[in-house]
Design goal:
Elongation Factor Tu (Ef-tu), domain 3; seven-stranded mixed beta sheet; 16 strands; Anaerobic sulfite reductase subunit AsrB
């Protein structure tokens, strides 16, 4: 029987700097997650951290990581050929079967683009899987932009709006993503659509509110977030909100439930 909490040593294949504070680590592994799941990454004698899968393929997996503490700082010292310890995958991913054949609206803020990146790649490679993709991506400033080459590629296959909170540069809007929700043609979808929102809790809260102003039903909105997850198997209670364990019941939630979980 497989031990679901046993970390496995995996070789780092590549390290790519995405922005000033974020790097993508490609790791050799046979683990095959669902889109939207997360793993626990660890370094012996240092600790572990829950990280969403930003992409995956045969024999490899990507993790886009922001350096924010002891564990991630130590991970940033690793290079190709070094090892990271992985356990998982954990949690519930995006409901892809429910998304199939729908118009998709995906709204992200900052590193919130990472948990939807693999799903966007799927929609890009399988253009008939969904009817259309409307993508709104926001970042604080140009130093924080992630996946620059992919953002350019997605302009050719999706309807895109890219925005910076505090700066105006060529090809980008200035403002918060909440300001552009009204530009999505929800009325033209005939009710046949789903909305995905990922980002910092305040961004998700107010983007959900803006979607409500556009008459988007709560049941059509999906969020993903990681709240103080530690064990990833529902034992430590760090991620518990009332009766909900984010690591087990999430990290993806329908807005009918998630609107009461966002800080």
């Amino acid at each position: 029987m497989k031990n679901i909490i046993q970390p496995v040593a995996c070789e780092i294949l590549d390290v790519k700097q995405e922005s000033k504070q974020e790097y993508t680590f490609r790791v050799k592994t046979d683990i095959r997650p669902n889109h939207g799941q997360f793993l626990q990454l660890s370094i012996p004698k240092v600790g572990e951290a829950p990280i969403s899968v930003s992409d995956f393929g045969d024999g490899w997996m990507d993790f886009t990581i922001r350096s924010v503490g002891k564990v991630t700082n130590e991970i940033f010292s690793k290079r190709p050929g070094d090892e990271l310890f992985l356990r998982g995958a954990y949690g519930n991913g995006w409901p892809l079967e429910q998304f199939q054949g729908k118009h998709m609206v995906i709204i992200t803020g900052g590193t919130g683009l990472a948990p939807v990146r693999s799903m966007l790649h799927k929609f890009e490679k399988e253009p008939d899987y969904v009817k259309s993709v409307h993508l709104i991506c926001g970042f604080k400033n140009q130093e924080g932009i992630l996946f620059r080459s992919e953002l350019e590629e997605w302009k050719h296959c999706f309807s895109t709006i890219y925005a910076l909170d505090n700066e105006k540069i060529d090809g980008w809007h200035k403002g918060f993503v909440t300001e552009f929700v009204k530009e999505i043609p929800f009325d033209s979808f005939g009710g046949d659509y789903e909305v995905v929102i990922v980002g910092p809790p305040p961004m998700m809260k107010f983007t959900g509110i803006e979607c409500g102003k556009c008459a988007v039903p709560d049941k059509k909105i999906w969020l993903s977030f990681e709240r103080k997850m530690s064990c990833a198997v529902g034992k430590c209670g760090h991620c518990r909100i009332d009766e909900v364990y984010v690591c087990l019941d999430g990290p993806t939630f329908n807005y009918t439930q998630a609107k009461y979980l966002v800080d």
